[in-house]
């Protein structure tokens, strides 16, 4: 996958990029005065000037959800780490956790499975694989050689706040040095299009 590159500091003029800025501000305000973890990089879909759908990662079909997650993850990690395969600082492994927070999950895959069952059609094998919510997170972790925990949650309250709290806990408990936090949901009507944001959160040096 080769998502379009954008400057990390580009001016935001879409709901997704405004959400990215608001979530980063939330992180700063929530832990003001403490030795807070920091946002090293961020990304969104769509970013200014983008239309249509993000590129589908290899091995996924039928749903835009894997494409949303893979695209913002790839952009954010490129902005934080460089190209895939670049050595980690100090030459060791990248102890980067991957956390996905989604209110609705991969609705597109669920709909595709339901349509096949209801229509009495043979299920496409790839749908079994990607019906597991963390399938695309494994794709991201393998592409970037990340060795931290992989976590998927459906928030009971504010998705950004819950995701940031979980990221902090993973770092503070020593489970990861960095956390790739992904917030993603598919369209829920014309006023709520596909959207995703990603943050690479790290402990201050």
From TrEMBL:
GO terms for molecular function: acyltransferase activity, transferring groups other than amino-acyl groups. Residues 1-24 are annotated as: Disordered. InterPro entries: Thiolase-like. This is Beta-ketoacyl synthase-like protein. It comes from Kitasatospora cineracea.
């Amino acid at each position: 996958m080769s998502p379009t590159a954008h400057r990390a500091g580009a001016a935001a003029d879409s709901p997704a990029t405004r959400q990215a800025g608001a979530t980063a501000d939330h992180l700063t305000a929530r832990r003001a005065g403490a030795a807070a973890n920091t946002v090293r990089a961020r990304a969104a879909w769509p970013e200014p000037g983008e239309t249509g759908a993000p590129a589908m990662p290899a091995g996924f079909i039928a749903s835009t959800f894997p494409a949303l997650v893979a695209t913002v993850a790839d952009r954010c990690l490129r902005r934080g780490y460089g190209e895939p395969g670049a050595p980690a600082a100090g030459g060791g492994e990248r102890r980067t956790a991957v956390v996905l927070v989604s209110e609705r999950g991969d609705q597109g895959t669920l709909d595709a499975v339901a349509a096949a069952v209801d229509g009495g059609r043979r299920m496409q094998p790839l749908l079994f694989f990607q019906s597991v919510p963390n399938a695309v997170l494994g794709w991201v972790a393998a592409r970037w050689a990340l060795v931290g925990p992989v976590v998927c949650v459906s928030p009971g309250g504010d998705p950004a706040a819950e995701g940031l709290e979980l990221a902090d806990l993973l770092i503070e408990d020593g489970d990861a040095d960095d956390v790739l936090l992904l917030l993603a949901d598919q369209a829920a009507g014309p006023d709520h299009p596909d959207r995703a944001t990603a943050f690479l959160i790290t402990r201050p040096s």
